[in-house]
Design brief:
Number of domains: 1
Radius of gyration: 19 Å
Distance between the termini: 38 Å
CATH architecture: 3-Layer(aba) Sandwich
Strand content: 15-25%
CATH topology: Rossmann fold
Structural class: alpha/beta
Number of strands: 12
Strand order of the largest sheet: 1-2-4-3-5-6-11-12
Helix content: 25-40%
Length: 355
């Protein structure tokens, strides 16, 4: 069954030399391209309202990333490459569409793709927008602003981090219950947090049920660890790809890359998903007793995600880059959905400034 789109949005199935997937478009064919990259447990659907509100001279482009919704279900994510598969897919799409340079926007997992694109394809970017992004060191398993590992094997990050109750809820098609780990419950607690429930909540929830589930998809595989919380990253799927284990020298590559795009870092001031005490970080909920054997907050503190993002961008400025930081009050993880007027005001100004 195909995914419905809003009036004014066109959906096409596109095959590149990397991936066959669904791609959404808005605006004129010859408009200035703006590429939107969605986050985990979502799809291009999440960007539709933002794309429709682009100023008339822009062409909105939003693909379903591999592992999600309309992407080829046989396409796997090699987590050992970090965001490499996602970056290569996006570049292949823009090559196929004939866009040498473009504005890039990413949310959450999509924000990690932006970091990697800044490192590996800086010449392709007109500008970069980090909209509620993940930290440059990925998710889980680090304890300070410079990304020092909490344990030698990055325990507490990767596929074993996702609550199995959530995965079972997806398999059971539980679209209505509002519990701590049901799809709708998680969205209301962690994603819309700080904002009103979106009018199209059902469409966004539906995107969660279109993720590709399995040991080589989502949540991905995992390995046992001798370190708390006794699970470490596997080698397949998006959640493992987000582990700091596979970040490598990303920070150094970003700082060395040229040219340097102007960056907009815009986020919800009440974001519970990306913060210095993220709600799903083992270091945050370890003290609650949910997992036995917590070694204490000194040994396993929450990942300081906001500090990591801030330091990365300040270091970026120190080598000649530039950025603007905007916190949207009373907004959670997706201000472009829950607070579109405030988001679009700063986003459109950023596009116009850099085009």
């Amino acid at each position: 069954m195909s995914t419905a789109v809003l009036d004014g949005v066109t959906a096409r199935t596109i095959t590149t030399d990397r991936l066959t997937t669904r791609v959404l478009f808005t605006g004129p064919d010859d408009g200035i391209p703006v590429l939107f990259i969605h986050g985990n447990f979502s799809s291009a659907t999440w960007w539709e309202e933002t794309m429709l509100q682009l100023p008339p001279r822009y062409r909105g482009i939003a693909p379903d990333q591999r592992g999600y919704d309309g992407a080829d279900p046989d396409a796997r994510i090699d987590a050992t490459r970090g965001m490499g598969d996602f970056v290569d897919d996006a570049l292949a799409l823009m090559d196929h569409l004939g866009h040498d340079r473009f504005h890039l926007v990413g949310n959450s997992l999509g924000g990690l793709v932006v970091w990697w694109m800044m490192a590996d394809a800086p010449g392709r970017l007109v500008s970069a927008t980090l909209a509620g992004p993940g930290a440059p060191f990925g998710f889980g398993g680090t304890k300070d602003a410079t990304g020092t590992p909490t344990t030698p094997d990055y325990a507490g990050s990767g596929g074993g981090l996702i609550n199995p109750v959530l995965i079972q809820s997806l398999l059971d098609d539980d679209r209505d219950s509002i519990s701590d780990f049901s799809p709708r419950g998680i969205m209301r607690r962690l994603v819309w947090s700080g904002g009103d429930i979106p009018q199209r909540e059902d469409a966004f929830i539906d995107a969660m049920f279109r993720v590709h589930i399995g040991d080589r998809q989502l949540p991905g595989d995992k390995e046992e660890s001798p370190h708390w919380p006794f699970v470490r990253p596997g080698k397949w799927g998006a959640t493992n790809a987000m582990s700091p284990k596979y970040v490598g020298d990303l920070v150094e590559r970003i700082l060395a890359a040229e040219p340097r795009s102007h960056v907009l870092w815009v986020y919800g001031a009440d974001d519970l998903a990306v913060s210095n005490t993220a709600a799903s970080d083992p270091g945050t909920w370890g003290p609650t007793g949910r997992l036995p054997g917590f070694p204490g907050s000194e040994a396993y503190p929450p990942q300081p995600m906001m500090d990591q993002i801030s330091k990365m961008l300040e270091d970026y400025v120190s080598v000649g880059g530039s950025y603007e930081e905007v916190a949207i009050p009373e907004s959670g993880h997706v201000p472009f959905i829950t607070h579109p007027e405030e988001f679009n005001r700063v986003f459109h100004a950023h596009l116009d400034k850099t085009s």
